[in-house]
Specification:
alpha+beta, minor pseudopilin epsh fold, 5-stranded antiparallel β-sheet, 4-stranded antiparallel β-sheet, elongated
Length: 172
Amino acid sequence: MLKKGQPPNRFAPRRRINAAFTMIELIVVMVVIAIAAAMVVPYAVSTSSFQAQSAARLIMSDLEYAQNQAIVSQSPVTVTFSAAGNSYAVSNASGTLIHPISKKAYEVDFDTSGGFENVSMSSVNFGCCSTVTFDALGAPDNEGTVTLTAGSHAYTVTVAAISGRVTVAKTQ
């Protein structure tokens, strides 16, 4: 402590004035930037590719579910596609199956399902018809494809003959 008239000690600690941002200010700025980016990015990036791919994978998983149900129940399970209705349903001899998660009829309509508003079932080709039936061994009655489009992106779901293997591939 300095007494009156005493010169300041040049080795005494001085009080510095820092001209910098606090951590809280930096965090607030980063949160604002993150919120702005979250609002802008969906408009900057096309989601049609993701929608088409998600729809194709949904069909693939539902076809595999139908195949597994046929094996477990030892009775035929049919997946009926409607390209005009942009939908499909999974059924057996008793009628439409109940979806294991939603507990509603196992019907998927891309026009009313959230997140698939740009998806269109452009073609369904299972030989003579738009259905595929899996027998008690899980084998399909015929091979075929379902092609989905969203914007300029297209994906094809293929059901192989005999094995019933289901695959998804991007269509060129």
